[in-house]
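Example record

The entry below shows one chain as it appears in the dataset: sequence first, then structure tokens.
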Amino acid sequence: KGGGGGVNIQVLLRCRPLSKEELSINTPVVITCNEQRREVSAAQNIANKQIDRTFVFDKVFGPKSKQQDVFNHAVVPLVGEVLDGYNCTIFAYGQTGTGKTYTMEGGGGKTQDGELPSDAGVIPRAVKRIFDILEAQSAEYSMKVSFLELYNEELTDLLAPDESKFSDDKSKKPMALMEDGKGGVFVRGLEEEVVSSASEIYKILERGSGKRKTAETLLNKQSSRSHSIFSITIHIKECTPEGEEMIKCGKLNLVDLAGSENISRSGARDGRAREAGEINKSLLTLGRVINTLVEHSGHIPYRDSKLTRLLRDSLGGKTKTCIIATIAPSVHCLDETLSTLDYAHRAKNIKNKPEVNQKMMKSALIKDLYFEMDRLKQELYAAREKNGIYIPGEQYLADEAEKKAMSEKLDRLELGLESKDKQLDELQGLYDSQKVLSADLSDKLQTLQKKMQETECALAVLEEKYMQANNTIKEKEYLIENLLKTEKVLVHEAHTLRSELENTTDDLSGLFSKLERKGKIEDANKNIVGHFHSQLTQDMDILHRNISTSVSQQESQLKVLEEEMQSFITTKGKVAGGLQNQVREMKESFSSRITELHGFASELNLKSQLSSEKLNAQVSAHTSDLEDCLKGLLADADQLLIGLQNGLSQQEESLTTLVEQQHEGLTRNVERTKSISATTMNFFRTIDAHALELKRILEESQASHQKQLLQLQTKFEDLCR
């Protein structure tokens, strides 16, 4: 059951895309949709000023939205409510040609293998959703559908069978709209067909849609000329915990309203103009009902139109309602679009009080069905008998009671008319007396008229002078007003100029102080760079002198080394020469000794006559002497050679060590000199790069300051002008 405060009607907005004709002529777009913020903005030009009006809705679908998106947001929740036992209504509202029928019924695509086409509308998608849920729940249910059309304030059943092959309007029989005694209405004689599958409803929908009144206008090639209401009533069986069978009932009303249209723009003539007038009349009544419900201004004019009577329970009643407002984005439809947006935005504030339909016991429902069958049988029997009354007696008595009430009402109206007639007679007597008085006054009026003519002439002259004076005063007032406005503008401009000049003066003083600080910094940087350059030059001179001194010292050391080497070589040559002479002398002495030995041997041979003892003694003595001499000579030669070799090796080692030390020292000095030179060159390059960068920054700063000064000068000159 609904809450005490009620539930606001849900209002959705859908904007169609531009048509091919509109795209071909580059029609301006004045509607902007923000789906995330649920806003629609309309750009409107009033007195050459663009005014944007923004409307907020429960959901906004832009030109690129799809049928599935609209269905998921608008219909899926209501289908669940219907299956829970509520009455729900969905209706499309908007100007002709904005896609109401497309949204409700679809683009005309055929169902293939039980799958709906992508352009299927709200009605076929809702039907499929209902059957899918019921089949998933394995529920026992019965379903009935009806299809009603309201054309030129006449109700027609679109599901009624054809009555005559030659009838001009063979399928649409006007029907009466009756009160049900509970604040609601019903259509007497409306056909309700029982269905058991979605395909049956698709066929019924296609059959009924083919019978609707449509026509081509300048705004829409297939414009609906009537309102239609497709209703689905579902009875679902439930079992209570006690095992008692209950029936809950839900109803879904899917309403496709005809679009409002401007007759001058749609090109409607004759019958089409009458159709458009009836459509606009019913929609205006709907708008008044919406305004009255929103403003709570007392009487709600439901009875002024059959459309509002049919939608009475959906607007401020016990039904859950969703309105899909459709608009066009082009500038040519701006007036109608704004009207639609206003009505839809107002409808958001309507509060319904939804209530769940009371569940019925299965036995009670069967009893009601039996009563209905008996009534239908009585009507059928009376129609077959044709005894002067073609309806049952009870119905006849009810009609007679209604006629009696109408006659009593007419009697009361006649009594009222009689009292009005008496009042008219009294007024006629007063009129006669006034007529006599008017005859007397006519003579006086003639004399007064002459005086009035003279007065009018004088008055005309005075009026002319007054008009001239008034025009002069108006011109002066206009000039004074313009001068005052100009003075105000000039004073305002002067204040603005003065404030800008003050700001400019402050900016200039700040700029000059900044330039002065920058000049000081640049001078300090120049002094630092000069001092560094002079210090670096001095250090480089000292380094150069040190390197030169080191090189000269190395050269002198090398010369000394060379002289020592030459003296060493000379000394060694002399020693070697001496050794050679000594060796040669030793060889000569040795050879002479050997010669002496040979002579001695020959002498021994000659003196062989000597005794062996004496000879052996002499030989052994001479031999021992010779061996001692030879041993001494060999020892002296070995010592001399060993000393010579040791001296040569020591001299070679010292010389090698000295050469290596000198080479290492020179290498270190050269590498140190190279690294110092490379560091110095890199430093100079870095200094040059920083100097160039500082120069570039100074030039850019001077150019920027010059540009700012020129801009300031230009602005100042413009302000002075």
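Notes for this example: The longest strand covers residues 227-239. The radius of gyration is 64 Å.
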